[in-house]
From TrEMBL:
One Pfam short name: FAD_binding_6
Protein name: FAD/NAD(P)-binding protein
PANTHER family, per database record: DIHYDROOROTATE DEHYDROGENASE B (NAD(+)), ELECTRON TRANSFER SUBUNIT
Phylogenetic placement of the source organism: Bacteria, Pseudomonadati, Pseudomonadota, Gammaproteobacteria, Pseudomonadales
CDD domains, A to Z: sulfite_reductase_like
């Protein structure tokens, strides 16, 4: 689908949710059929007049009225301007774009590993699992630098009641789990024997988690990562987002690990992680 002109998007409300991050509720004016079939892990382009466009993930999917939410971290030009807006502001929206997470695949026990704002692209999957709409047992391992850096506080409160959620901190205080998610993988494998991984966060965390899961016997085709690339058109036209021979805006941002390795092996492009960062 080529959607060049942004549609009208209303900013309904927002609240602080993590360091330099806010939880936004938006409503798409006159939602289209595609908006109602968003798959967790897909993304949309948010346009601010005079400040350009940037990609963001859906935290909750648009409902019939077009209402959805997103977790956005303040990074630069566009997000600075967004954080200054009041409720009721009218913005631009294009989407949905890309491929979401695999929701139905041959694995019963799945682990979601997230770092920092990387929890946002996984939120939809976790929500589906807590509502028993997925035929999988999901456990979640979420790492943050410290408590104040954690995002999606309201969602995590609800998830804790429904599934195993381990929260780790690089700078833990008394009673918290010290370390990165990698240091707590053994505990999850011992308790749940996961057969598949969905992972989103800083590149080094994703790549190390994938390798650790391979070492514990997980198959490469059961490992999925969400990659971040600079995106402009989001429609396969500009070439800014390439991963090897593939465009992340269309073939990603979620990639199966074996396919990702294959793409890297067949290109001279630098390995993902060298030129990327995740919020
Ligand atoms: C598929 C996808 C989904 C995303 N989902 C979210 C989300 O849910 N929440 C969220 O907060 N952010 C998300 N991001 C990141 C978000 O798009 C960027 O932070 C955004 O472009 C910032 O815009 P800005 O104008 O405020 O900052 P800019 O002024 O564009 O950038 C600030 C700094 O970040 C660097 N930068 C910006 N984007 C990238 C990039 N893709 N790769 C490397 N460096 C970059 C710039 O070089 C600059 O140094 C997502 C990105 C992608 C590709
Ligand atoms: S963002 Fe233009 S081709 Fe992907």
């Amino acid at each position: 689908m080529i959607e060049a002109t942004p549609r009208r998007l209303h900013l309904l409300e927002h609240y602080a949710d993590g360091e330099d991050a806010r939880h936004f509720s938006f409503r798409i004016e006159a939602p289209a059929a595609a908006d109602l079939t968003v798959i967790p892990g897909q993304f949309f382009m948010l346009a601010l007049p005079g400040h350009g466009e940037a990609p963001f993930t859906y935290v909750s999917r648009p409902d019939r009225t077009g209402l959805f939410s997103a977790l956005i971290r303040r990074m630069g030009r566009l997000t600075d301007a967004l954080f200054e807006l009041n409720n009721g502001a009218v913005l631009g929206y294009r989407g949905p774009f890309g491929r979401g997470w695999p929701l139905f695949f041959s694995a019963q026990r799945v682990i979601a590993v997230a770092g920092g704002c990387g929890l946002a692209p996984l939120a939809g999957v976790i929500q589906e699992a807590t509502s028993n709409r997925l035929p999988v047992q999901l456990s979640v391992l979420y790492g943050a630098l410290h408590s104040a850096a954690q995002v999606l506080s309201r969602e995590r409160e609800q998830w804790r009641q429904a599934l195993p959620l381990i929260e780790t901190f690089d700078r833990a205080t008394v009673g918290q789990r010290q370390g990165t998610p990698l240091e707590h993988l053994d505990e999850v494998f011992a308790a749940h024997s996961p057969e598949a991984l969905l992972c989103c966060g800083p590149e080094p965390l994703m790549l190390a988690t994938a390798e650790q899961c391979l070492r514990r016997g997980m198959a490469a085709d059961k490992i999925w990562l969400s990659l971040e690339r600079r995106m402009h058109c989001a429609d396969g036209l500009c070439g800014h987002c390439y991963v090897g021979a593939s465009y992340a805006c269309q073939d990603g941002p979620t990639y199966r690990y074996d396919r990702y390795l294959h793409l890297l092996a067949n290109t001279r492009q630098p390995a993902v992680g060298q030129d990327l960062r995740f919020c």
